[in-house]
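re: ur question from earlier - yeah i can do the single chain one, its not a big deal. heres the input i used so u can compare w yours
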Amino acid sequence: EKCRRKVGMTTVDTHFKDKLEVSNTDHAYKHPPELSLEASATLSSSPAKTHTSRKSFEKEPPGSPLTSLRSPAFGHIPMSPDRSHLSPQVPGYVSNRPEIPPEILEALSKLTGQDGFTLAELVAEQPGLTYDDFLMLPGHIYFAPGDVSTNTRITRNIRLRAPFVSSPMDTVSESAVAIAMALMGGIGIVHYNCSIEEQAAMVRSVKRFKNGFITNPMVMGLDAKVADVLDVKQTRGFSGVPITDTGKIGGKLLGIVCTRDIDFVADREMSVTEVMTQKLVVAREGCTLTEANELMKSSKVGKLPIVNGNGQLVALISRTDLLKHRDYPMSSVDKSSKQLLCGAAVGTRDSDRARVTALAAEHVDVIVIDSAQGDSTFQADMIRFIKANFPSIDVVGGNVVTSRQAAHLIAAGCDGL
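and the output i got, formated as tokens:
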């Protein structure tokens, strides 16, 4: 056994039996004053072994070849050369590269051997492995945690800021988990152990949770009642409803009904025309999301309608979405709509094609084909159906475990495996 891997009865070379002492309390090793640099390079050269006592030892004097291997002061980079004469503005690995003299590297190699195994060596040593069988060894770092990028791809076209995807299981991923995953930079895959309508509603909840420009907002007409606005508030969680002459997006904007307009209205049958706010702050079509957000902040409004030159409603921006963007800067969002990314699982039956159509109508971003054996004609046909009819939706195929299986699904057109 190497001396650093023993506690108490530690074996070392006979040549140093009176010169090297090991503590069983802090498991460190020390070199005596008289140990020369040349001698340190010959560690473990003698086959004879003996045991040392468990005495405490004194600090090695300056100049000892392994003095630099002691634990450094907090915040110092271990085994780095003196860089105090360099500009503190020299960043990165170049300015802090550890430089270990060759003779000390040789001594370390003979004393402690190689640190761990490479991947090839590990598999050759023990082909069958579980997660408990090995540890990842730490190495020298030259960066702060904030400098680490966790960006990764889930498909050909979708990149996540955090490499986390929730499983498409009915006990794992519904709308609440999918929202939480997306807000934290991952993505949730909504399960399909439910009706088509239920799954589509869950995807809708995720996509409506956070928006940039809301291009399909809830709109009402002049015939709407206060009761209609209250129903929207109860079922969908918001009450800022634009009122147009047609009752649809694209109609001329006449006003907007918010919570403060109906909080103290007792008559549920009152027309919205009697309570709606008509003096509105609006943004013009063509403005950027940044410009619209700045206008919303300066005017202190909760909803900002976007209108064209004819005063027709084309989009809406919500203050709550602005706050969500501030509070969750890592969130996974669609580049154009700024809505949260959301995935959904489907099977390979013919009936699942109707499910795909319903999910596409809710602007799902990625569809995961849930199958224990991915290399099948049924899955290849489903991939081709989705890509032919909904090319903007990315498709993840699987499960696969061989390169031939993967090649078949890639040839069918999937965007991820």
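The longest strand covers residues 313-318. not sure if urs matches, ping me
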